[in-house]
Amino acid sequence: MLKKLETEKLLPVLVIENAEDAVPLARALLAGGLSFAEVTFRTAAAAQSIRRIAEELPQITVGAGTVLSVEQANAAVEAGARFLVSPGFNPAVVKEAARLGVPIFPGCITPTEFETAMAFGIKIIKFFPAEQAGGVDFLKAVSGPYPELKFIPTGGINAGNLGQYLALNCVLACGGSFMAPPKLVAAGDWDGISRLARKAIA
Ligand code: 3PG
């Protein structure tokens, strides 16, 4: 799965208000050439959305984002999430991911956080919020001492700055809502989402 993510390089962050939208949205991403989906636990529909995608679209590698608690980690994996993402480094959630046997990409931005994550065996970090923290230059500088770490920058990334992040050796993939903006999801603009997926790939 990690190899596939490294090749595909794009991790769409999804905010789904209505579980009915989950499968059409994931289909739109597939039609646009993407096969990863991070469904965030920012809405009550998250677990149900993950379940529907996992059951109906096995071609999609579905995971859970904004995982803030051990309970959410369990609900996500039970629904079919194959990876977990969190905005910060939560030791209890990281331990639970290991117990559940799924990879977790915890959000870290500073050397101290990187080293804390490394002490827990983490090698892939969500660099969040990427742009607001200092962007490509900051990531270049801060990642220097840690050649064993790979990053998934997320936060403020779009088709315009994506290429600069992906050009860094330390970047495994980039995440973001720019491939499936909540506005287009709410409007059911699936063709628009496929177009944005293609644009990101291009
Ligand atoms: C996330 O949940 O990872 C971020 O909110 C995504 O950030 P973006 O909306 O700026 O892409």
What does this entry show, briefly?
The protein is an alpha/beta fold and 202 residues long. The protein has helices spanning 2-8, 22-31, 46-56, 70-79, 91-100, 111-119, 130-133, 135-143, 162-166, 182-187, 190-201; strands at 10-14, 36-40, 61-65, 84-86, 104-108, 124-127, 150-153, 174-176. It has 11 helices and 8 strands.
What does the oligomeric state look like here? single chain
So what's the overall shape? Answer: globular
State the distance separating the first and last CA atoms: 22 Å
Helical fraction: 40-55%
Task: Report the radius of gyration as a whole number of Å.
Answer: 16 Å
State the main characteristics.
46% helix, globular, 202 residues, alpha/beta, 11 helices, 17% strand
Explain this structure.
- With 202 residues, this protein is an alpha/beta fold.
- 46% of the residues lie in helices and 17% in strands.
- The chain contains 11 helices and 8 strands.
- The chain has helices at 2-8, 22-31, 46-56, 70-79, 91-100, 111-119, 130-133, 135-143, 162-166, 182-187, 190-201; strands at residues 10-14, 36-40, 61-65, 84-86, 104-108, 124-127, 150-153, 174-176.
- The strands form 2 sheets. Strands 3-2-1-8 form a 4-stranded parallel β-sheet. It has a 4-stranded parallel β-sheet with strand order 4-5-6-7.
- Helix 2 (22-31) packs parallel to helix 11 (190-201).
- The radius of gyration is 16 Å and the shape is globular.
- Residues 13, 40, 65-66, 128, 154-157, 175-178 line the site of 3-phosphoglyceric acid (3PG).
- The site of 3-phosphoglyceric acid has 13 residues, from strand 8.
